From TrEMBL:
Keyword Transmembrane belongs to the record: no
InterPro entries, per database record: MethylDNA_cys_MeTrfase_DNA-bd, MethylDNA_cys_MeTrfase_DNAb, MGMT_N_sf, WH-like_DNA-bd_sf
Family matches, as SUPFAM superfamilies: Methylated DNA-protein cysteine methyltransferase domain (SSF53155), Methylated DNA-protein cysteine methyltransferase, C-terminal domain (SSF46767)
Pfam families: DNA_binding_1
Name of the protein in its database record: Methylated-DNA-[protein]-cysteine S-methyltransferase DNA binding domain-containing protein
Gene3D superfamilies, per database record: Winged helix-like DNA-binding domain superfamily/Winged helix DNA-binding domain
Keywords recorded for this protein, A-Z: DNA damage
GO molecular function, one term: methylated-DNA-[protein]-cysteine S-methyltransferase activity
UniProt domain Methylated-DNA-[protein]-cysteine S-methyltransferase DNA binding: residue ranges: 89-169
């Protein structure tokens, strides 16, 4: 039996929807610059600016900059920004749990693992937290190690985590929360 090959449609007839890529902007803060990648007000990435990053914003990210400015100046206690992130079911369950941590509250990777029904998977929870493309929107700075240490993907992440925790009223010294165990937030090992 002979199969017939379909010929491609004539030039210009192909039906394609063109995706408009998110716009990237740089947002300067007292803690260092941020990369903001968004489309139609939905954040696709929000992280520390890195060498080699480039901005192509046409001004459409300005409303996001305004929300960030209000949050980082202490005028707002929430980042009311819609965010689009794709992850595995495990990552999504971790991210969902992180969104339940309120302003000024803390939890540990181990406590998050128990909360999602995966006790003993604190390290995997840490990797899922680190994989989110917009950690500031998610509130990942509120998740710390069981001994009160601040952990992160890189030095920029630790700088941001420290700054955001201080903004929320926590005392951080040399990469460790001070007094958190007394406040009942984190159980710190002796």
């Amino acid at each position: 039996m002979r199969t017939r090959r379909r010929s491609p449609p004539p030039y210009g007839v192909r039906m394609q929807t063109r995706q408009i890529p998110p716009r990237t902007s740089r947002f300067d803060t007292p803690f260092g610059p941020l990369l903001v990648r968004a489309h139609d007000g939905v954040v696709h990435a929000l992280r520390p600016w890195r060498v080699g990053d480039a901005a192509d914003d046409d001004g459409s990210n300005r409303p996001i900059h305004d929300v960030l400015d209000a949050y980082l100046s202490g005028d707002a206690r929430t980042l009311a920004l819609p965010c689009e992130a794709t992850g595995t079911p495990f990552q999504c369950s971790v991210w969902s749990a992180v969104t339940e941590i309120g302003w000024g509250e803390l939890t540990t990777y181990a406590a998050l693992a128990e909360l999602i029904g995966r006790p003993g998977s604190a390290r995997a929870v840490g990797q899922a937290v680190a994989a989110h493309p917009a950690p500031l929107v998610l509130g990942t700075h509120r998740v710390v190690a069981s001994d009160g240490r601040l952990t992160g993907v890189d030095a920029d992440a630790i700088v941001w985590k420290t700054a955001l925790l201080r903004l929320e009223g926590h005392v951080v010294h040399e990469g460790r929360l001070i007094g958190a165990e007394a406040a009942g937030f984190v159980r710190v090992a002796a």
